[in-house]
Every structure is written in C-alpha cells, then in structure tokens.
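testing teh design pipeline on a random one, pls ignore if ur not involved
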C-alpha cells in the first residue's frame, strides 16, 4: 500500500515553497523551481489542513520574519542512511553560522568524503529546516544549493546580516 502524501504550497520572500507531509511528519520542503524537485503524483493530495503542514507554514513565516531560529516540526526525510547522517549533521549547524562540506564529512565519520557529503547535501529534502544553505566551500565561498546560489546568499544574509556585507565586499 502506498503512502498518501499531503501537500500544500506556501508563499515566501524567496518564492513559492512546497511543503509535503507523510503521516504526521514533514518529509519535504522544496522551492518550486529547485533542482531535484519531486514529482507530484496520484499518491499525493493537496491538504492544507494537516497540522504538521500548518505548523511548518507558521514556523517558516516566523523564520522569514526573523523571530524563529530553530524549527520543531516532526520530520521524516526519506534517504539512505548516509544521507540521513549528513542531514542530521547539517541540522546541528546553528543559526547564523556556517560549516564546510569537509567538516561535515568529519562529523559523520567519513573524512575525505566532502564530495559525497556535497551530493547528500544537494539531495536534502527539507531545505531551510535542515539548513543546507549554511554549508559552504572550504574557503568560505558559496558553492552548490539546490534552490540556487542567490537564495542561499539571501538565507545566509537573513540569519547574519553582516554576511551580505562581506559577500558584497568580496
């Protein structure tokens, strides 16, 4: 039996966001035009009434308003054990800070696997909530973001306004 996913579209300052729920947990948060956007199929039902979708929308609104730094909706991302380890490590990067792909590789016990970590990061199904925008190149440069580098820069600037100034100076 296939799982029925509930979904809804929500507006954001960075474009439309698709929220996807499986049961009582959020399993997807995607920008409408991002790389690796999932296909909406017959097992999905538009359903704005699911509590987890309503909570995710409210928390996103608070995040974009600058009043939320951590999300607490239940999550159920679908991925390999390695991907889930990487996503859990990403979730530990605090608001306003960044980490590198190589540091994440060390954190998940795969030193020297920065490229594999980068691939897992790119497949993160819960952008913003699992803050892959906080992962940067070893030299601090903005590299890779399924939602686009412009969005990555804007998310980092939202969390750390001084980031926008350092990027303009670079």
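output:
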């Amino acid at each position: 039996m296939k799982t029925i996913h509930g979904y809804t579209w929500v507006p954001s300052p960075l474009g439309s966001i698709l929220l996807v729920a499986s049961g009582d947990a959020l399993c997807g948060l995607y920008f409408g035009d991002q790389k690796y956007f999932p296909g909406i199929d017959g097992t999905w039902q538009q359903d704005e009434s699911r509590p987890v979708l309503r909570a995710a929308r409210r928390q996103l609104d608070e995040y974009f308003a600058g009043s939320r730094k951590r999300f607490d909706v239940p999550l159920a991302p679908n991925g390999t054990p390695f991907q889930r380890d990487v996503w859990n490590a990403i979730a530990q990067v605090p608001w306003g800070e960044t980490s590198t792909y190589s540091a994440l590789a060390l954190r998940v016990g795969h030193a020297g696997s920065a490229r594999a970590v980068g691939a897992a990061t790119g497949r993160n199904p819960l952008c913003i909530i699992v803050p892959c925008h906080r992962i940067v190149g070893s030299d601090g440069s903005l590299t890779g973001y399924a939602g686009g580098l412009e969005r990555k820069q804007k998310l980092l600037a939202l969390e750390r306004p001084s980031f926008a100034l350092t990027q303009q100076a670079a």
